[in-house]
Amino acid sequence: MSRTRRYLRGMGVGYAHQLLSMGVGLYLTRFLLERLGSEQYGLWIVGMQLLGWLLLLDVGVVALVPREIAISTGRADDPEATSRLVGFSARLALMQTVLVGVAALVLWLLLPSDWDALRPALGPTLLAFVLQYPLRLLPALLEGLQDLAWQSGAQMVAFLLGNATTVGLVLLGHGLVALAWGWIVQQGVVAVLAGWRLWRHHRHLLPRRLPVLAWSEVVHWLRRGAWISVDKLATLLVSGTDLLLVGKLLGPEATVAYACTGKAVSILIHQPRMLVNTALPGLSQMRTGESRERLLHVTTGLTQATLLVSGLLATGVVAANGAFVGWWVGADKHLGLAVTVLFALNMTLRHLANATALATFCFGDERRIALTTLVDGSLAFVLGAVGLKLFGFIGAPLGTLAGLVLVSLPGHLRALARHSGTSVGQLLRPLAPWGLRTGALMVLGAAAALFWSPDHFPGLVALSAAAALLYLVVVGPVAFRGPLEAYVRPRWNAVLARMPARWVARAGSKPSGSP
User: How far apart are CA 508 and CA 192, in angstroms?
Assistant: First the structure.
């Protein structure tokens, strides 16, 4: 099966998983708020942020596996390389579990006294996290082998079982502990299904025994992986500390309002990002046999596709988020149009930065990416904390936006221009039609939100559909420009070929606005 075919299959199942996650997640949040209350649910949100910090102890061991496995399978000169790599990374992950266990114990002991109500749920969660830590390698191997459709399907099954466990235990009166066991079941099912898939279909790549680790190999791996951990730390500073800051400075209940206002963005942000992340193993494999020009062509097309989807979602969020939050959990959980606009703007610009960073990552630029994102995250953390104290809720997304605009975007764009032998202006020029049209529609969406915020579901659907339709008409033709056209045009022509001839004659063979 070709890389493109594996990519599209993985995308299809992945988006089905995302749609399921959106529907279940929206129901579950309202269900938990009604059953547990804002304070307890806010504590759980904080607990999940703390768990994210423990993942930094990976030091790139598991994070490097998908890329290295993809590169290894792309080389025909050493058929045993993949098996050796699997054994090496498994041994290293087992050794790390001891360190993770110590860190989890320290986190438990140092938990602030005002978060003591979180302890009954956090305890079993931390224990399961440590015990299941080396099993994170299993889905990472499937990702590197580009078995993407199966992996997304397994995650979907695990998601359903985990949330069913949560709902059942909450109904039985177990409170926050129910959320802990739901998380534990979800993580365990993912590991079990990934292990079964590897044993049944990729057994030839599994080592018969784990190798003895040579210190020089460990140091070499950790030296490369450390930059990925630095990047993860920076990402947590960018996208995770705002909730922690709000919880610490304004209280757990304020965290719930902040999370509810940003819920649409927190769900939708994964949709465009999936376009890039799903392609990463294939792009890594391309490094072994494709030219830099070809890599740049593919990554530019991915950037265009990412921004087209991101702009669509951002426009809808600006227009309908107030109505959505009011219908979903109540208007008192919505922090206003200004915070919504900042969330949407952050999402779209972050997608541009991430897509640009991916292009330089494929050129082996992980160290610069990590340092750039770390400076971005540190600036966002400091400015977010100051902004929360001075301006309230709006200060947190303002801090994130400042770090993004001042550090990450210019840094990643300059690096990509250097790798591709062009200028930043030439890189941005193909994106100008998208930027101008999307910016105008976001302003229009903000105006619509000021004048009409329906408090019923049919109105919410109508407002969202109108924003989406207008975006497709105004911005959609941009898909037929630049490198993305090479992927969109054949599929557009295939759709036209299946339509009645009289419809095609009326519409024309090209959409309005395409070259």
Answer: 51
Q: Do residues 512 and 329 lie in contact, with contact meaning Cβ atoms separated by under 8 Å?
A: no
* 510 pLDDT more than 60: no
The helix-helix angle for 38-54 and 3-36 (nearest 10°) equals 140
Tokens of 220: 């070499």
What residues contact residue 70 under an 8 Å CB cut-off, 6+ apart?
Answer: 144, 145, 146, 280, 281, 282, 284, 285
Structure-token pair, residue 318: 């600006």
The first and second tokens of residue 258, run together, are: 């902040």
Q: Is 53 helix (H, G, I), strand (E, B) or coil?
A: helix
Q: How far apart are CA 2 and CA 108, in angstroms?
A: 47
Say which amino acid occupies 73: T
> Which of 110-124, 280-294, 399-413 is predicted most confidently?
399-413
* Of 131, 63, 138, nearest in space to 97 by CA: 131
Q: What is the pLDDT of residues 272-322, one digit of tens each?
A: 666 666 666 566 556 555 666 666 677 777 788 888 888 998 999 999 998
Residue 477 and residue 74: Cα distance in Å, rounded? 36
